[in-house]
């Protein structure tokens, strides 16, 4: 009786619940971020400063602790009032990744160990949910796929997106902004398609991330980084929600805004982490380096080298993400050929922009396009 009452209340007052979740996420994150900052400074737990760092002062990297707390509170609340028990395994997997990230932030962890943990958590959530892909929504003509192929693609997608999101967490505001935009899109998708529980969780995470940005953009005295505790968990949540949208979407024509090709839709929403990771892997391999060896060739590094501030570089990349999303919405009902041409043009154009910037930096020159972009952004933003 109580469960049914709560479910009816959620359905009838969903907008109020979403607003409450948003505020809850913000307030809880503020509270735990303050506590984490105090403890980190008292124990002198700061992010390492090295040749790749975009900061020179010692900054705590425990912003992810409060983000994880908000997710757990929101997710377990939804489980308690009747949501799918698969969310419980998502929470468990996120907890394992959180602990792995915490160890890495405190003592460091080898790339091999982190990869094994990521594979293990991906397997855990896939075998205890319905997230294993059975189709690719017609992506380049591929409809249904075999169970083994579906499992491997789902597993690879989770591991790839966890690492892709972790890699863009290199400047103030970028990881938080990309996640806010993505969770907002996912939240709207869930809202219009009656995924009540998931829309509430998205609202809570958006509130928490907005709160995090207030610490991430703060002065050095109050500044805090997300750290692996946050980037691994948020990357995992982005991956899980991506699989939800692809796996659960029925094949065939759908109303407006329900993506006709959910794979292209996800590639548009997550264009920044996906593109940056693909190009950085290609660059490292072409230079004879191992893909996991860190460097300063990420897109945000190129923008910083062109003279942009952290806020300006974040604004630039977040704007490219928003343009990609609206671009997909415009071509959503134009058929598969238009959608495949869109994703090819999108990734080719963005890759060409940053490839040009990478080459000109290597030659010690200033690319005209990026020089103009830099001057415009320096005028508009502090």
What attributes characterize this protein structure?
382 residues, mainly alpha
Q: What is the H/E string?
A: HHHHHEEHHHHHHHHHH
Mean pLDDT, to the nearest integer, reads 85
Distance between the termini: 55 Å
| Strand order, sheet with most strands | 1-2
In which range does the helix fraction lie? over 70%
What value does the Rg take, in angstroms?
20 Å
Query: Which structural class should the secondary elements be placed in?
Result: mainly alpha
State the helix count. 15
State the major sheet.
2 strands, antiparallel
The overall number of domains is 1
**Model regions low in confidence, pLDDT < 50 over at least 5 residues:** 363-367
Describe the global form.
globular
Task: Tell me what you see in this structure.
- With 382 residues, the chain is mainly α.
- Helices cover 72% and strands 2% of the residues.
- The chain has helices spanning 2-12, 14-43, 63-80, 86-106, 111-127, 147-167, 174-192, 196-216, 227-248, 262-269, 271-286, 299-305, 310-331, 336-363, 368-380; strands at 135-139, 142-144.
- The chain has a two-stranded antiparallel sheet with strand order 1-2.
- Helix 5 (111-127) packs across helix 6, helix 6 (147-167) runs antiparallel to helix 9 (227-248) and helix 13 packs antiparallel against helix 14 (336-363).
- The longest helix has 30 residues, at 14-43.
- It is globular, with a radius of gyration of 20 Å.
- The model is unreliable at 363-367 (pLDDT under 50).
């Amino acid at each position: 009786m109580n469960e049914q009452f709560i479910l009816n209340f959620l359905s009838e007052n969903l907008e109020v619940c979403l607003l409450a979740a948003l505020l809850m996420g913000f307030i809880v994150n503020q509270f735990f971020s303050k506590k984490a900052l105090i403890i980190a400074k008292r124990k002198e737990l700061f992010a390492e400063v090295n040749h790749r760092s975009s900061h020179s002062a010692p900054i705590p990297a425990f912003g992810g602790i409060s983000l994880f707390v908000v997710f757990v509170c929101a997710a377990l609340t939804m489980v308690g009032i009747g949501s799918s028990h698969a969310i419980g395994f998502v929470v468990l997997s996120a907890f394992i990744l959180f602990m792995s990230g915490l160890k890495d932030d405190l003592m460091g962890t080898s790339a091999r160990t982190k990869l094994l943990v990521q594979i293990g958590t991906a397997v855990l959530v896939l075998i205890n949910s319905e997230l294993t892909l059975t189709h690719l929504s017609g992506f380049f003509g591929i409809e249904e796929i075999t169970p083994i192929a579906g499992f491997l693609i789902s597993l690879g997608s989770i591991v790839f997106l966890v690492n892709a999101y972790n890699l863009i967490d290199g400047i103030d505001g970028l990881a938080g902004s990309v996640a806010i935009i993505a969770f907002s899109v996912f939240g709207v998708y869930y809202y219009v398609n009656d995924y009540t529980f998931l829309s509430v969780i998205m609202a809570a995470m958006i509130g928490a991330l907005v709160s995090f940005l207030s610490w991430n953009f703060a002065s050095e005295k109050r500044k805090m980084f997300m750290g692996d505790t946050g980037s691994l968990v948020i990357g995992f949540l982005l991956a899980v929600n991506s699989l939800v949208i692809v796996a659960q979407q029925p094949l065939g024509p759908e109303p407006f805004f329900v993506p006709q090709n959910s794979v292209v839709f996800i590639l548009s929403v997550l264009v920044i982490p996906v593109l940056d990771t693909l190009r950085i892997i290609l660059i490292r391999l072409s230079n004879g380096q191992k893909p996991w060896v860190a460097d300063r060739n990420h897109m945000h590094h190129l923008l910083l080298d062109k003279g942009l501030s952290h806020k300006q570089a974040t604004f630039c990349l977040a704007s490219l993400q928003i343009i990609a999303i609206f671009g997909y919405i415009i071509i959503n009902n134009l058929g598969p050929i238009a959608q495949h041409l869109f994703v090819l043009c999108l990734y080719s154009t963005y890759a060409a922009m940053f490839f040009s910037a990478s080459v000109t930096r290597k030659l010690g020159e200033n690319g005209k396009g990026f020089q103009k972009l830099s001057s415009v952004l320096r005028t508009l933003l502090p």
